[in-house]
Design a protein that fits this description.
heterodimer, A: mainly alpha, B: about 130 residues, mainly alpha, about 70% helix, about 0% strand
Chain lengths: ~160, ~130
């Protein structure tokens, strides 16, 4: 029969802490992975936000450039009393078509493409109306002013601004 | 602050615009009734809380006056109305379903009355 010494502080062997160093918490590797995944996700998010802002700024600049082109187009051809130069008019319309098509093709934000398509539609409508009026010498100062107001309003809406 | 929850109405004693003065000259009773309906809708739209509804009404009124004064012709007017309609469709589609009918009445419907009923009257006055 084993001898049990009743010494203070002793305890049965099965209740004692082992002498080997305490092993790593079972959850520690998992926590590392979770932390790293979180850090990577945060880094990706921050970087992508920066890229998105940059791209949107570029997209806004493209829209502003198209606005300036269209306003200049109206200024050039919606002039009361000016003789209509069909060749110059067609060349400018072709230049505009190329600009709009390029902008649509280059647009990284797919959600913005329909907006650019709408702006191209406005340019087409403006060009058709101007051709019709200018070729018959029926341009008035009010027509040019109102056309430019519409262009500015439509571009402001495209950029998400209230006018 | 409206105490009874009803929307505030603008007083009908608003100053007559150049367009109102022209449309008030219509003698024919049937035509005059249409003009009255148009003027009331236009006034309602001009006092609306939605920026785009107000803006549309102001643009329409300005262009009707330009047409009446011969500064633009009917082709120009129709062209601008088409521009306005194109822009408004996007606005109406973006409204909550319950507001769309009202928005349409105060925008596209007014433009329709202007083209079909008001413009012929104004052109006859030139």
């Amino acid at each position: 029969m084993p001898l049990h010494v009743l010494t203070r502080g002793t305890e049965p062997a099965q209740d004692r802490e082992p002498n080997t160093p305490r092993p790593m918490n079972r959850n520690t590797p998992k926590n590392f992975i979770v932390r790293n995944v979180f850090l990577c996700a945060a880094a990706i998010l921050i970087t992508s936000c920066g890229t998105a802002t940059f791209t949107k700024t570029g997209s806004d600049a493209t829209i502003e450039s198209l606005r300036n082109f269209e306003l200049a187009f109206i200024d050039e051809f919606a002039v009361p009393g000016k003789k209509f130069n069909a060749a110059a008019f067609n060349a400018k319309v072709n230049e505009g078509n190329a600009k709009f098509q390029q902008a649509i093709a280059d647009e990284k934000f797919t959600a913005r493409r329909p907006v650019l398509v709408d702006l191209k539609g406005q340019f087409d409508a403006d060009a058709a109306h101007l051709r019709s009026k200018a070729s018959r010498g029926k341009i008035t100062p009010a027509l040019a002013t109102e056309m430019k107001k519409d262009v500015n309003k439509i571009y402001d809406h495209a950029l998400g601004r209230q006018t | 602050m409206p105490s009874d929850g009803k929307p505030k109405r603008r007083k009908s004693s608003r100053k007559k615009s150049e367009l109102d003065s022209a449309l008030d000259q219509v003698g024919d009773e049937t035509v005059a009734a249409s003009m009255k309906e148009f003027q009331e809708l236009l006034a309602q739209a001009k006092g609306d809380t939605a920026e785009q509804i107000r803006q549309n009404a102001e643009e329409l009124e300005r262009r009707l006056v330009l047409l009446k004064n011969g500064e633009i012709d009917k082709e120009d007017f129709d062209f601008f109305v088409e521009n306005q309609k194109r822009d408004l469709r996007v606005f109406i589609d973006s409204q909550p379903a319950q507001s769309q009918e009202r928005a349409e009445k105060l925008t596209l419907h007014i433009l329709e009355i202007a083209v079909t009923k008001v413009v012929p009257v104004l052109i006859a006055m030139i």
